[in-house]
Amino acid sequence: MAxxxxxxxxxxLEHTKRERRKNRINAYELGTELLFKSKQELEELxxxxxxxxxxxxxxxxxxxxxxxxxxxxxxxxxxxxxDFSEATSLEILNSAKEISTxxxxxxxxQDNIKGIADWVSNQSxxxxxxxxxxxxxxxxxxxxxxxxxxGHIAPNEVAxxxxxxxxxxAFGEIDIDTELDFLIEVINTMGMGFLKEYFKVxxxxxxxxxxxxxxxxxxxxxxxxxxxxxxxxxxxxxxxxSLLSVTDNQIIDQNxxxxxxxxxxxIFSHDYLGQLFDDYxxxxxxxxxxxxxxxxxxxxxxPEKYKA
Length: 308
Known about the structure:
Elements (H helix, E strand, L loop, with lengths): L1 H21 L4 H23 L4 H25 L7 H14 L3 H30 L2 H14 L6 H12 L9 H15 L1 H13 L4 H16 L6 H12 L5 H7 L15 H14 L25
């Protein structure tokens, strides 16, 4: 009787192994099926020969190892799919853990459970980073930062950002009024910390050159939307520009009317930049801004002074 049970479980196990190797995406279903087919027979063997019997322990550990491998293969095959759930892999690994009687197999199972937990934690971080470095949001933060860096919000600047959002779809599917009011709440809370955090995101974001040029285009448009540019805004642009990799020639080709003061040669000196950064954040005050939802909407008027 014990030999028949052992032979039957071994047959299920070998079938699962063959099918798993053919298509690892099906590993979860195969592991679950193996567990369903073998669990009762394994329990009968345990009752027949005892939990300490070598025949029971040997087949139990072989079964646990194959079920564990099903969980591992499923995880590797599916982890990058949008509909993947780590709970599915953990479920089958925990099933293997309940069956195994061997300390080394138990440790291997636990190591893989921890590996999945680490992947989930890192995936959350990756998702968070993707949200932080979402280009449409960086683009909007660029426009918003250049709108507020001089300490006030001009109606024509707001109108420009709304026009770019609504007519040009510059910021993707972002609800522009909701997002602008949210950014105002954040800058009212963080003050200059908001602009410093913006520069930190800009420095670390994995931007392509065409994306950098798009940021520059929007920055310049926003700067000139109120028809005037003061020296603090020029300094803010210089800090902004220093965090990008595009060349001066690329910027000038895209923005031929940009005044020379924005791209002075000493801008890239490390000491100069440090002083520029300190001077800007020491000399400019950020007031408390009123939410845009409380202000009347105005149509954007293209300023005559500068056209990028």
